[in-house]
Write a structure and sequence with these properties.
two-stranded antiparallel sheet; 9-stranded mixed sheet; alpha/beta; 13 helices; 371 residues
Amino acid sequence: MTSLTGTPLFVTAIALVVIAVLLPLLLWGKARGPAVVRVATRALMVVFAQVTAIALVFVAINREEHFYASWGDLLGTGKYVTAAPDLGPDGLGGAKPAEVAREPKVRQEFRPVDGLGGRVRTTELDGKISGVKGDVMVWLPPQYDDPAHKDRTFPVVELIPGIPGTGKSWFQGLKAHEVLEPLMRNGTVQPFILVSPRAMLLGNGDTGCANIPGKVNADSWFSVDVRKMVVDNFRASDEARTWGVAGYSAGAYCAAKLAILHPDRYSAAVSLSGYNDPGQEPSSLVAKDPELRRAHNLKELLKARPAPPAVALWMSGAEHDGYLSGTDLKALARTPTTVHAERITGGHNLEAWSRQLPQTFGWLSRQVKTP
């Protein structure tokens, strides 16, 4: 996979800009030939300068925000879905949760992630249930490798990025590990294992964390395969009370949705600038069909549950960027479902979401239990 965030591409982009600046200085007055040729030559130099400048800005922003990890992500040509059978309403394909848990352990090899320090590691997971094959990033809290905690089992928060976005967005963009590590050390936030799986599974389209037979089983990727991999490789439990899920933008919708649908897998969800109607994301796959769009609206999902799910939801954002979605769900929620709606300022951006991490993870520390 060719990286769009690596140093070689960044250095190449800078070099091309330098060349684009020098060319007119050195060759503008030396253009030869008929007038039309001279004009065309100079026009090409100007266009080259503009294109390289735009390319450098894109590469620099993408390195910082990590919207696209590879050319495949950018062009929508990445192949991450190997199969998409109909897995049924629970996303398990007819298997019982206990049967999935008894499946052979999924042992993975992890490697450090460039630019994020040794504690953020990544692996390529072949999801046996979902038919999705993609990267998953994991960060372990400071207590994990402390000999004093060698027998301790840790709670987990699954982190879902927006669209476009990669698992690295949570660490390089929101700087979740940098913000939360000192809070975990001083006890303000309990030590969580942070797990951020690939969310862009079908080109640049937003799966809405849905299982769509014949297309993708994104729900089962997040809520079954990734969870099992974490439990099989780290000191973590598969109990719902020990798992939370958080997301921003399109990932916020996913986080709330996964918690509402699977209270047997998650006990709490944080939605940063999310929404209830999947149609608010232009690239949403479920929104392309009116009936599917209605069925995947969080309000409809909450009302359709046979019993109110035992989950806690945090939904924050500006008035029309998450907050009113939260108040709408809060009006529908019935015990034991709880919804906290928080109005914030700062816009729809990574900096605003990063500033909310101390508060939201403090809240998660009260909702998600230590095994």
